[in-house]
């Protein structure tokens, strides 16, 4: 991959500025390792439309993972 990153925001050399190092995210916010909070206008390019760590999304992921994560065979959970 040219530049070795999956988005221009990760290639700070190409867009200027000092890279942020994100520690965590919650709702619409990102938090860097120094505890500063940033409003996430990118939303992971769309998948985070409900925000980061949305409780209902976490619950659905947890329930799915508790049933197992990889079987090597078809399952009812797979889209048809």
Can you describe what's shown?
This protein is an alpha+beta fold and 80 residues long. It has a domain of 47 residues. It is 20% helix and 15% strand. The chain contains two helices and three strands, in the order αβββα. The protein has a three-stranded antiparallel beta sheet with strand order 1-2-3, with no helix packed on it. Strand 1 and strand 2 form a beta hairpin. The longest helix is centred in the C-terminal third of the chain and has 12 residues. The protein is elongated and about 45 Å long. The two termini are 32 Å apart.
Would you kindly provide a brief summary of this structure?
The longest helix has 12 residues, at 55-66. The mean pLDDT is 84. The chain has a domain at 20-66.
Question: Key features?
Answer:
80 residues, alpha+beta, three-stranded antiparallel sheet, 3 strands, 20% helix
Distance between the ends: 32 Å
Coarse shape: elongated
What's the arrangement of strands in the largest beta sheet? 1-2-3
Q: Name the helicity range.
A: 10-25%
Q: Strand-and-helix sequence, N→C?
A: HEEEH
What percentage of amino acids are in beta strands?
A: 15-25%
Number of helices: 2
> Taking all residues together, what is the mean pLDDT?
84
Tell me about the biggest sheet?
3 strands, antiparallel
Number of strands: 3
Based on secondary structure, the structural category is alpha+beta
Radius of gyration: 17 Å
- Low-pLDDT stretches: none
